[in-house]
Design goal:
heterodimer, A: mainly alpha, Alpha-Beta Plaits, 3 domains, two-stranded antiparallel ribbon, 8% strand, elongated, B: alpha/beta, ten-stranded mixed beta sheet, 9 helices, globular
């Protein structure tokens, strides 16, 4: 049993905090969420840097990230060794994984080849850093894979109990209720990319078999960024090298002593070497600013290659299937696709928190550049009229946090009837489920009474629905509840002009609509 | 009944005494009790008491389902859901009558969590002993043979089916297709499957279900009614405050009377007509005794 160090305590606390915040990223009866896992992204320097580069302006939500950035420049990569929940998971499993030799191809400058193109792409308005952000990878694995899997398992067990016990199951209800209220997701949503999300996470764990913290020191773009800052840190370990008579640090150190000299940009400040030095020689102390060892910050080849890579990323993955664009619906409040791609960090939180499981990660709908960005699929879930949760949890404001009155007027798309499918048109019988569910108080879906002959020649009066376009916010409930199987008779289509519905809209058309006038 | 209510009823008795006796004398034909007042708890109790009190329906030790309409993510004042005070009072009366357990639920249209909370019903019942406010669980729907005119069978909620007493507590409001939604349509809250698909024959389909599944008591909340843009509303301009609660053992009679509150005739509501034709109750208000209390 290893001695419990303060770094380890801090790691575990932050891991617990992360998991608790993850579970709290869910509606529990209050319109505003007190806490959400977005705190980890708002304090994430990679999110900060990539978003600021892409948005080319200050994003107030990301202020905590700036603090961590400054602290990292002073202290080094303390985030990786004391806070990062993914790093903690790696430390927890690392002991159980037998190591073979480090992978030599990872030892070069691979990590810079990952970070620099991502940042250059951000500068060119495509913020893809989130795809490789460790916190985002962790949240996505939980949101899309692990949490629904646990939910699904628990839920099907509970259903099975009902088949066995019938109403006698109610005796167990209090216990299940606690589980359901605090640990399980409210809906067991099946997500596309669940497998890929799990795979990314498992890949990082798999890398542990080559060396400890393999991901953190050789790939992680957040760690690499913090490593660059760590070079500036006046906080130094002495002695900087392994002592000739001992070499004990090499075995203790999780990251930076595979060479003789301490690699400052890989040191996680776990302080194991100081605590366990048999001669009490090791200290971390302020040594003033001095140029860090470890070669030039950036070679010309890397700089130019990064530029080219970034341009490549930002410019050559923009192909989009035009047919898919017709149905590319973004969360409420997103007015411009370009602006959205600048800020969306693909963390998956909006999809986690979405009340009706309306949001899903894009696979190919938004092109490669839009991988993992949220899209609304009305047939699976609709945007709840009074709900503002996705805007509340978005760490960068890519989905704006709007007051309910304003959010209700945001246009996601516009509903269009397909008369070949819609029941009153195609079958000449009543339906109107869409009008019933339309949440707009003045009704964006209305109907007219039409008397016609049905297919057997009898005269029938049928209510036929139509859309008041100036009132429709594209929430998608009409498409969601359409009783037709498969394809709905009414569908929401993307629109370029997403100007919010005017507050006075509909009053003109409303006058004649009251059946009691 | 608390002392104040008792005294109030006692004081009012001479006024209505003649009337009450007439009611009791004509023991045939259904009664619709109509209570009016600003105290919604009081008028709910008065309406139930006019039918003989909750003890007539609920016997000690029984399991009762109180089924409000709380299908929409709307606040109490918007009139899309049953008023929480009315629901709470009905639940309290059941407990007072000795109910072992009172279950309150609805299959909602909007997100169930938001509906339960924002209708005000879940908060109003919070902390009450022996009262269960749970979301619908899909596995509990059970196929029920209806042998109706359009529906041969449908999935209904087992907690509603197995309850000793079922009390229907709808809100009176406008509906885009059926014009009004009242007691008969409130049964949709215990239906599983794709409920929307019965819209093509809504009146007959609802008669099919109501013919098999009959509430013991219907309490219609007309404290405020939604007169347009139902069943969801959302605009307070569409809400009319009436301060009324109706109660009857005859669901068709209750619906028929409630229809008049909208300035409509019972014959204009196809759902009511279809149910009356099926013999589920009396829609001819001339044959219904209205007990105003």
């Amino acid at each position: 049993m290893k001695k419990i160090t303060s770094a380890r305590i801090s790691q575990l606390l932050f891991l617990v905090l992360f998991l608790v915040m993850f579970l709290m990223t869910e509606y529990r009866g209050s319109d505003r969420l007190g806490v959400a896992v977005n705190a980890f992204f708002r304090a994430n320097p990679l999110t900060l840097v990539s978003t600021l580069l892409a948005a080319k302006g200050w994003v107030p939500l990301l202020f905590p990230g700036l603090l961590v950035l400054i602290l990292s420049a002073l202290l080094g990569r303390f985030f990786c060794g004391w806070i990062c929940p993914l790093g903690t998971v790696l430390d927890l499993v690392a002991g159980r994984i037998r190591k073979s030799a480090p992978l030599s191809w990872l030892k070069g400058r691979v990590k810079y080849w990952l970070l620099v193109p991502l940042l250059v792409a951000a500068l060119l308005d495509i913020n893809m850093a989130g795809l490789f952000d460790p916190i985002a990878i962790f949240v996505r694995a939980l949101t899309f894979f692990l949490h629904p899997l646990i939910g699904e398992t628990a839920r099907s067990g509970w259903v099975e109990l009902y088949r066995l016990l019938g109403e006698r199951r109610d005796a167990l209800e209090p216990g299940y209720r606690i589980l359901k209220d605090y640990l399980l997701p409210f809906r067991e949503t099946l997500y596309p990319l669940a497998f890929l999300s799990a795979l990314a996470f498992l890949f990082i764990i798999f890398l542990e078999r080559y060396e400890s913290r393999n991901w953190c020191r050789n790939l992680c773009p957040l760690g690499t960024l913090l490593g660059l800052l760590a070079r500036l840190s006046p906080f130094k370990r002495v002695p900087a090298q392994l002592c000739a008579d001992c070499h004990g640090c090499a075995a203790l150190c999780p990251t930076s002593f595979d060479r003789e000299l301490l690699q400052k940009e890989e040191c996680l400040l776990c302080m194991e070497c100081q605590l366990r030095c048999p001669h009490q020689r090791v200290h971390f102390r302020l040594a003033g600013f001095q140029p860090a060892a470890g070669g030039p910050l950036m070679e010309r080849r890397l700089f130019l290659g990064g530029l080219v890579g970034g341009v490549f990323l930002a410019r050559f993955f923009r192909f989009r299937d035009p047919v898919a664009q017709v149905r590319l619906l973004r969360p409420p409040g997103v007015r411009s696709e370009a602006e959205f791609l600048e800020k969306c960090v693909r963390c998956g939180e909006c999809m986690k928190v979405c009340l009706r499981s309306a949001l899903y990660p894009a696979f190919s709908q938004a092109g490669v550049e839009g991988l993992y960005t949220p899209i609304l699929i009305p047939r699976l879930g609709y945007c709840e009229y009074n709900c503002t949760l996705c805007g509340q949890v978005c760490p960068t404001g890519a989905i704006p946090d709007l007051p309910p009155a304003e959010k209700k007027r945001q246009v996601i798309g516009k509903a269009v009837f397909d008369k070949n499918h819609c029941i009153p048109f195609a079958k000449r019988t009543d339906c109107i489920v869409c009008e019933e569910h339309c949440p707009i108080p003045q009704k964006a879906i209305r109907s007219e009474m039409v008397t016609e002959r049905d297919f057997s020649g009898r005269s029938v009066t049928v209510k036929k629905p139509y859309v008041i376009e100036e009132l429709c916010n594209g929430c998608g409930i009409c498409e969601n509840v359409c009783p037709l199987e498969g394809k709905a008779g009414v569908e929401v289509f993307a629109v370029k002009d997403r100007t919010p519905i005017a507050e006075s809209a509909g009053s003109r058309a409303q006058a004649s609509d009251d059946p009691y006038q | 009944m608390d002392r104040r209510t008792f005294l109030r009823v006692l004081g009012l008795t001479p006024l209505f005494g003649q009337w009450l006796i007439k009611d009791l004398a004509a023991a045939d034909g259904p009664v619709v009790a109509v209570a009016e007042g600003r105290d919604y708890a009081l008028i709910t109790r008065r309406a139930i008491d006019a039918l003989g009190g909750m003890k007539r329906f609920v016997k000690p030790g029984q399991v009762v389902v109180v089924k409000p309409n709380m299908g929409w993510d709307r606040s109490a004042e918007q009139g899309a859901n049953t008023h929480p005070v009315v629901v709470r009072t009905v639940v309290e009366e059941c407990l007072k009558a000795g109910a072992k357990r009172v279950k309150v639920f609805d299959r909602t249209c909007n997100d169930e969590r938001r509906c339960y909370v924002n209708s005000g019903i879940e908060p109003a019942l919070k902390g009450m002993k022996n009262v269960e406010v749970k979301h619908i669980e899909n596995e509990r729907f059970r196929k029920v043979v209806l042998n109706g005119h359009v529906l041969k069978e449908w999935e209904l909620y087992d907690e509603a089916l197995s309850a000793d007493v079922y009390i229907n507590v709808p809100v009176a409001k406008h509906h885009g297709l059926s014009r009004l939604t009242l007691g008969l349509k409130n049964v949709m809250g215990i239906m599983g499957g794709t409920r929307g698909s019965i819209h093509k024959n809504l009146d007959v389909a609802l008669a099919d279900i109501n013919a098999v599944f009959k509430p013991h008591l219907t309490v219609i909340d007309a404290t405020r009614i939604l007169t347009a843009h139902g069943p969801q509303g959302g605009n307070l301009a569409d809400v009319k405050v009436l301060n009324k609660v109706l109660a009857s053992t005859d669901i068709v009679a209750a619906d028929a009377y409630a229809t008049t509150l909208f300035g409509l005739k019972p014959e204009e509501i196809a759902v009511t007509v279809a149910a009356a034709k099926r013999g589920l109750g009396q829609m001819d208000l001339k044959k219904v005794r209205i007990a105003r209390v």
